[in-house]
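Quick review question:
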């Protein structure tokens, strides 16, 4: 069975996916949401790739250089051994304190021993492969260009013979060499020594970055790998965090649930802030907060659920019909029509973010007045719209409903606004807002609770369960030991759990019954079990879920129930955020036990 056996490399400007045999199968340049230059991931024949080919009797092993985003693929046959160190350069500039992160991939080929042989199959297809890409060998580089849909170019620099590379000829490796794939033509010609220096500088950047992260008693390696992955999905220029590095990787093979995730969802924001701050990276958290504040519309304008990484508001959806799709799963989409949807939960998410910022960075708030103005605006909008139906967290494209999660997050908006009002000493608002907060809470308890199934349900009046209601506890709406919450967790375990993996919901949506597990829902479920006191069962589920990651510890959006194959866009920021949150909970529990033992 083929899996999403890819490693991600990146430099907070763009990212690339490299298969476990060393084939570069996905990259968009110059930034995450640009058109692709390699897209074999979405079309075996027409997408374009850069493969390292060896004879079948070579063994191939892949790992990350410890605590970095440098991917090492090792090829070995007896004494003939070499490694390809793949990375996108990122390091501090010496003169101004900013980061050097060019739109560039370096494949540093390290000679280990013997006389290993390989072929480089370099075949980029620019602009999503829409037109023909032509290659021209020049004195210092190979230039690839296309001009059908629009003019675009890509440059390859290498220490190896350029004609041999372009002909796919055999290369006998006797010393280190390199390939550098650049969106821009270089002013100074790269050399192997310079590329070795880039490798070391990038290594130092990541080691320094990881050094700022606390060490955890349990699951430390998994936390670090997830944190590095999350950092790679951060767009440096604006502070935005992408949902994933890819588009159109299907939730189910052969179906049409294929979406472009190279955008920034406001919903993910509060979890990003909490987790990234917990990991000690407060600057990243603050920059992401500023990204969100900058997006705040005028007082009477609706907040969108998602934005482009450069704060774009219009994300028109198109299909690329010339691409076959991942394993034939069409259509391939770019853009995402969900940006137009009404989702009432985002105001609670945003208010939670504002409260988190004030609670964590209260001594360093430059925009208090702005935040208070936003707070008042959010309460006004929630007060006006909380009773209306919406599309909900799962972005149903059919009719609007009164989704429980959306109502809970409307309550969160008021709860956090009241806390902010207390911080700012705005006592008049507190009384008025408390009445609305109590009204919403009462409405949820009356309409979202189904006494027949003894659980909070997906939407008012329904009998359907939904994993999103598990978040009631983590947002503070209900206590973990409240009998209503405990019985909801049990009902969800009984009805939505399939061999320890969670359905988001089981009722048919616009595309039929989901047949894969949404990875984050399983993490939510594990956290809920942990909170209600079933810690051993939660830990067993968590360790089993970790075993479903790919060979590098990475997760996508979904997992197939039967085969445990990774599906959906990859790697998924939300999955790794939830992994970190779970792992930290278990680790803290272990630390508390150790302290109690030492006291005893």
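Suggested answer, residue by residue:
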């Amino acid at each position: 069975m083929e899996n999403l056996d890819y490693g991600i490399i990146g430099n907070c400007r763009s990212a690339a996916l490299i298969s476990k045999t060393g084939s570069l199968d996905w990259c968009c340049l110059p930034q995450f949401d640009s058109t692709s230059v390699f897209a074999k991931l979405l079309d075996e024949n027409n997408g374009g790739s850069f493969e390292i080919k060896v004879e079948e009797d070579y063994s191939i092993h892949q790992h990350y250089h410890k605590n970095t985003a440098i991917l090492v693929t090792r090829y070995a046959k007896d004494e003939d051994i070499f490694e390809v160190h793949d990375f996108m350069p990122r390091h501090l500039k010496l003169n101004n304190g900013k980061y050097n992160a060019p739109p560039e991939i370096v494949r540093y080929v390290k000679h280990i021993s013997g006389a290993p042989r390989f072929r480089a199959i370099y075949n980029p297809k620019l602009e999503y492969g829409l037109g023909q890409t032509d290659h021209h060998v020049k004195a210092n580089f190979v230039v690839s260009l296309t001009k059908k849909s629009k003019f675009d170019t890509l440059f390859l620099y290498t220490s190896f013979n350029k004609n041999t590379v372009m002909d796919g000829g055999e290369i006998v490796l006797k010393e280190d060499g390199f390939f550098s794939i650049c969106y821009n033509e270089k002013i100074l010609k790269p050399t192997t020594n310079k590329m070795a220096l880039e490798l070391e500088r990038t290594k130092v950047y990541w080691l320094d970055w990881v050094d700022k992260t606390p060490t955890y008693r349990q699951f430390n390696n998994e936390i670090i790998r997830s944190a590095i992955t999350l950092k790679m999905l951060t767009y440096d220029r604006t502070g935005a965090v992408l949902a994933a590095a890819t588009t159109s990787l299907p939730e189910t093979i052969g179906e049409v649930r294929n979406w472009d995730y190279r955008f920034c969802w406001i919903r993910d924001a509060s979890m990003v802030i909490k987790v990234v701050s917990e990991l000690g990276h407060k600057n990243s958290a603050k920059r992401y907060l500023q990204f969100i504040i900058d997006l705040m519309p005028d007082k009477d304008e609706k907040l969108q659920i998602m934005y482009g990484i450069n704060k774009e508001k219009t994300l028109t959806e198109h299909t690329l019909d010339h691409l076959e799709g991942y394993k034939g799963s069409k259509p391939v989409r770019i853009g995402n029509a969900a940006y137009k949807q009404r989702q009432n939960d985002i105001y609670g998410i945003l208010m939670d973010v504002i409260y988190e910022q004030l609670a964590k960075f209260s001594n360093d708030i430059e925009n208090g007045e702005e935040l208070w103005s936003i707070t008042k605006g959010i309460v006004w909008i929630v007060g006006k719209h909380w009773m209306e139906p919406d599309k909900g967290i799962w972005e149903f494209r059919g009719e609007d409903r009164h989704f429980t999660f959306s109502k809970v997050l409307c309550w969160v908006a008021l709860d956090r606004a009241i806390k902010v009002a207390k911080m700012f000493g705005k006592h008049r608002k507190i009384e008025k807002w408390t009445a609305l907060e109590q009204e919403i809470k009462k409405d949820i308890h009356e309409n979202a609770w189904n006494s027949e199934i003894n659980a909070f349900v997906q939407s008012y009046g329904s009998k359907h369960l939904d994993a999103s209601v598990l978040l009631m506890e983590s947002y503070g709406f209900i206590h973990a030991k409240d009998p209503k919450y405990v019985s909801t967790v049990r009902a969800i375990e009984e009805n939505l759990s399939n061999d320890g993996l969670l359905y988001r919901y089981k009722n048919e949506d616009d595309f039929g019954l989901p047949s894969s597990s949404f990875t984050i829902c399983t993490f939510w479920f594990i956290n809920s079990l942990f909170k209600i006191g079933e810690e051993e069962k939660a830990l067993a589920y968590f360790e089993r879920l970790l075993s479903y990651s790919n060979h590098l510890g990475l997760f996508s959006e979904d997992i197939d129930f039967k085969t445990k194959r990774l599906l959906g866009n990859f790697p998924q920021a939300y999955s790794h955020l939830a992994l970190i949150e779970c792992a930290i909970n278990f680790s803290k529990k272990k630390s508390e036990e150790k302290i109690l033992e030492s006291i005893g």
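Why it works: The chain has 14 helices and 30 strands. The longest strand covers residues 104-113.
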